[in-house]
Amino acid sequence: MENGKLKTVKQFCAENPAFTESGLRSVIFWRGDFLEEQGAICRVGRRVLVDGSRFIELAKSGQLRTVRGAA
To answer: How many domains is the chain partitioned into structurally?
Structure first.
């Protein structure tokens, strides 16, 4: 995947089957502001676009280990 190339949630999940659409939407709901600050997503109106390489970097670094607060 090209660095910085934005994809819809559906496109990202189709290319990365380890992530389900509902799981990704849950992460975006609970941690959306953090993801936006980190450059992993951007919002254009109601549409959410995912920077796949940045999102995967955050997942690998463990920053998405907890999604809804205390586990």
So the answer is: 1
Contacts of 44 (CB under 8 A, 6+ apart): none
Tokens of 36: 């936006």
**Domain span holding position 10:** 6-60
Look up the pTM and report it. 0.85
Give per-residue pLDDT as tens, 1-33: 445 599 999 999 999 999 999 999 999 999 999
Residue 66 lies in a domain: no
Helices (H) and strands (E) in the chain, counts: 3, 3
